[in-house]
Amino acid sequence: MLPLVGxxxxxxxxxxxxxxxxxxxxxxxxxxxxxxxxxxxxxxPFLGYESRSWLLDPDGAALxxxxxxxxxxxxxxxxxxxxxxxxxxxxxxxxxxxxxLGTATxxxxxxxxxxxxxxxxxxxxxxxxxxxxxxxxxALLYAYDLAAAGQPLQSHVSARLERVxx
Length: 166
Fold this sequence. Notes:
The protein contains one helix and ten strands, in the order E-H-E-E-E-E-E-E-E-E-E. It is an all-beta fold. It has a ten-stranded antiparallel β-barrel with strand order 1-2-3-4-5-6-7-8-9-10.
């Protein structure tokens, strides 16, 4: 997972079916966004993770903050040695927390799926997620599928991010 460490910035595309109560949260229809992702490492057996994104207008100017998530990624250890299995815990300001389990293929490809989703009583109705990350030609590419608001798991966002630090 160490190749992920650094700051990554770029743009992506998103979309999700309209929901009666919250078109803004899921970005009803298709939209463009800018994103900054930070993976940090302090020597302990996990990575810190933070992501911020902004909704863009048709000219590419930021309109407003879109999504924020923080958490930790960690390899599953057996007898003190990292395996190809990994865990990620992500928390959102909308009252949702997701526990992902997944695998690393080499040091540049990661696939994660929710094992559990916990929500506060006023949280968005998220029920599942699936994420694919890969470092390709020096860029971080990812796709995030989401099940929420009674909708089945489906494509939600994807982006290409370039390393700007680290």
